[in-house]
Amino acid sequence: MMRRDFLSRTAAVLGLGAAATAATRTGAAEGDGPYEVTRTEEEWREMLSDAEYRVMREEGTERAFSSELHDLKAEGTYLCRGCDQALYSSQHKYDSGTGWPSFWQPVADSAIGTKPDRSLFMTRTEVHCSRCGSHLGHIFDDGPDPTGKRHCLNGVSLVFQEA
C-alpha cells in the first residue's frame, strides 16, 4: 500500500514538473497571426506584468486558485487583457472545481481561436484570443450541458467588465 502511494505521488510530482516546463516554453501566440492587434515583444513586455507576459505570450499557466476572477460571481463580460476584446460572459461561467475560471462557451465562436497543444504527454486544445493571439488557456471535453466543453482559462489573461 505504501509503495502504491509513493508511486502515485511520484507520478503526480513528475506531471507537475512537466506542466511547469511546458508552461515556460515560447508560445505560438507570438506568430500564429495575422492578428488585427499586433505589438512588438517590447510593447507586450511594457504593457503586461511578468506573470501576464509568461501566460499570454509564452503560453504559461498560472497557479490554480491564484486568480481573483476564479470566485467572482458578478454579472459582466470577461475581456482579453491584451486587446479588450469581449471573450466570455458571466452567464456562461461555472465552478469546474479546477481552480481556474471556467466557462462552457465564449460570447461568440469568432472571439477565440484554437490549436492543438502537444506540450504534455497528450494533445490538448489551446484557446487564444482571435484578435491579438494572446494565450488564454485550454478547452476540455468535460464541461456541462449544453456544450459539454470546459474553457479553462488563466485569470491573468482576462479583465472583468461589470455589467
TrEMBL record:
<dbReference type="GO" id="GO:0006979">
    <property type="term" value="P:response to oxidative stress"/>
</dbReference>
<keyword id="KW-0479">Metal-binding</keyword>
<keyword id="KW-0862">Zinc</keyword>
<comment type="similarity">
    <text>Belongs to the MsrB Met sulfoxide reductase family.</text>
</comment>
<dbReference type="InterPro" id="IPR028427">
    <property type="entry name" value="Met_Sox_Rdtase_MsrB"/>
</dbReference>
<dbReference type="InterPro" id="IPR002579">
    <property type="entry name" value="Met_Sox_Rdtase_MsrB_dom"/>
</dbReference>
<feature type="domain" description="MsrB">
    <location>
        <begin position="41"/>
        <end position="163"/>
    </location>
</feature>
<dbReference type="GO" id="GO:0005737">
    <property type="term" value="C:cytoplasm"/>
</dbReference>
<dbReference type="GO" id="GO:0046872">
    <property type="term" value="F:metal ion binding"/>
</dbReference>
<feature type="signal peptide">
    <location>
        <begin position="1"/>
        <end position="22"/>
    </location>
</feature>
<dbReference type="Pfam" id="PF01641">
    <property type="entry name" value="SelR"/>
</dbReference>
<dbReference type="InterPro" id="IPR011057">
    <property type="entry name" value="Mss4-like_sf"/>
</dbReference>
<dbReference type="GO" id="GO:0033743">
    <property type="term" value="F:peptide-methionine (R)-S-oxide reductase activity"/>
</dbReference>
<dbReference type="GO" id="GO:0030091">
    <property type="term" value="P:protein repair"/>
</dbReference>
<keyword id="KW-0560">Oxidoreductase</keyword>
<protein>
    <recommendedName>
        <fullName>peptide-methionine (R)-S-oxide reductase</fullName>
        <ecNumber>1.8.4.12</ecNumber>
    </recommendedName>
</protein>
<keyword id="KW-0732">Signal</keyword>
